[in-house]
Write a structure and sequence with these properties.
GO molecular function, one term: amino acid transmembrane transporter activity
Strand content: under 5%
Number of helices: 14
Distance between the termini: 53 Å
Subcellular location: Membrane
Keywords: Amino-acid transport, Membrane, Transmembrane, Transmembrane helix, Transport
Pfam family, one: Aa_trans
CATH topology: Hydantoin permease
Number of domains: 1
CATH architecture: Orthogonal Bundle
Protein name: Amino acid transporter, transmembrane domain-containing protein
Radius of gyration: 22 Å
């Protein structure tokens, strides 16, 4: 075997990183801008104009701030010249004690596994929506045109089995760029259709406080819906679990933390602008009766082919988002296996087939993982409620608590000082929000179980 030249490696002995401001910004937007952008109109309908807009801005600023703090944790002890921390868990281990390191691992991998299942379900619903859209066009809107989602779950899983053979985060740049383009495509379609509805004079009533309490909305229902909406907005920005993995793809010059801070500003800024436009225009178009997702929930029926393009874009985006969110978990399992069974050819040996490197362990276990995800997605079609619960349990530690605690430790912030107090207050407020969202998710699970049929997910 011919030895690669030394220029192909970075100073830590790993393959030279080639990431740039553009690729890392694309990774961020791939994770942040999900199909949930199409549910923001529903969130505004539950919260109203004032609270809806304020919360969207507040969580964008909070997430941006904690990401700026976290980007300085890529190297330790110095953020520019220190030793690299290749992932979130390693940064927590270096900066905080052992128990917090274990808590971080549980939180990080739970949200990644949960998200991969949630993405599978959402993609299947979007694929089913394409079939229903065509059916509505032919047979009319009064026809139910219902279809089982299981075959669409299997289609998504087959594609992911292939994509999951991408060996690591460093090879995902093209996937992320395509996924980012798709996210802006379906968000733009939602915007255009909303504007058309508003201009056409068919928009519905909105209000400062959202859907009013009345015959169709009890005060208790209003409260639970508001909790769910707060959770949807907060967790729309939860990409911190993969931030350091994204940062580890950057070239060492200019300094990674400086580039990452710019990427966070670009990614979160662009995503928030898109969120705001979609939420505001969607709410103006549908008012207090906004559907949970106005592409799959058929807020729009015509032109049917535009709705189809929007849903296909959602699927392509989630194919990439699945990889971006799950690659750290893949890496964790494979690195642990190498340490557990050193020298095992099945785990370590790479086979060159054409332009591709094939590892039998990677091929086997990642394929099994995607199959397992597909089975769970078909068994429990309401897994998005579980996802909300997992998200509410992990949003606070991963996006708020650990970045702030690592900053306090690194900067040696004195206990009781003004900075220490307001950082702790921010942590407490976000904890309360996460608990409220968790309560809404538990209630959603109870409702889902009441009409549950295993392997019977119907769109």
């Amino acid at each position: 075997m011919q030895k690669l030249p030394s220029l192909s490696f970075d100073d830590d002995g790993r393959i030279r990183r080639t990431g740039t401001l553009i690729t890392t910004s694309a990774h961020i937007m791939t994770v942040v801008v999900g199909s949930g952008v199409l549910s923001l109109a529903w969130c505004f309908a539950q919260l109203g104009w004032i609270i809806g807009v304020l919360l969207l801005v507040a969580f964008a600023v909070i997430t941006w701030y904690t990401c700026i703090l976290l980007s300085d944790c890529y190297r330790s002890p110095d953020p520019v010249t220190g030793t690299r921390n290749y992932n979130y868990m390693q940064a927590v281990k270096v900066n905080l004690e052992g128990f917090k390191y274990k808590l971080c691992g549980i939180s990080q991998y739970a949200i990644q596994v949960g998200a991969s299942i949630g993405y599978t379900i959402t993609s299947a619903i979007s694929m089913a929506a394409v079939k229903r859209s065509n059916c509505f066009h032919v047979h009319g809107h009064k026809n139910g045109c219902h279809t089982l989602n299981n075959k669409y779950v299997l289609i998504f899983a087959c594609i992911e089995i292939v994509l999951s053979q991408i060996p690591n985060f460093h090879k995902l740049s093209l996937v992320s760029i395509v996924a980012t383009i798709m996210s802006f495509a379906y968000a733009s379609i939602g915007i255009v259709l909303s504007v058309a509805r508003i201009v056409g004079g068919t928009s519905s009533k909105t209000s400062l406080t959202g859907k009013p309490i009345g015959p169709d909305m009890t005060s208790m229902e209003k409260m639970w819906n508001a909790f769910s909406a707060i959770g949807d907005i907060a967790f729309a920005y939860s990409f911190c679990p993969v931030l350091l993995e994204i940062q580890d793809t950057l070239k060492p010059s200019p300094p990674e933390n400086k580039v990452m801070k710019k990427s966070c500003t670009i990614g979160i800024g662009a995503s928030t602008l898109l969120y705001m436009i979609c939420g505001i225009l969607g709410y103006l178009a549908f008012g207090n009766d906004s559907p949970g997702n106005y592409l799959t929930g058929f807020g729009f029926y015509e032109p049917f082919w535009v709705v189809d393009i929007g849903n296909i874009s959602v699927v392509i985006h989630l194919l990439g988002a699945f990889q971006v969110i799950i690659q750290p978990f893949f890496a964790f399992v494979e690195n642990w296996s190498r340490e557990k069974w050193p020298g095992c050819k099945f785990i370590e040996e790479e086979y060159i087939i054409g332009k591709y490197n094939i590892n039998m362990f990677r091929l086997t276990w990642r394929t099994c993982y995607v199959i397992l995800v597909a089975i769970v997605a078909m068994m429990f079609p309401f897994f998005n409620s579980f996802m909300g619960l997992i998200g509410s349990a992990t949003y606070w530690p991963l996006t708020i608590y650990f970045p702030i605690e690592m900053y306090i430790s690194r900067a040696k912030i004195r206990t009781g000082s003004f900075t220490w107090i307001w950082l702790k207050l921010l942590t407490l407020i976000c904890l309360i929000v996460a608990l409220l969202a968790a309560a809404g998710s538990v209630r959603g699970l109870v409702v889902s179980f009441s009409s549950f049929e295993i392997f019977r997910s119907v769109s």
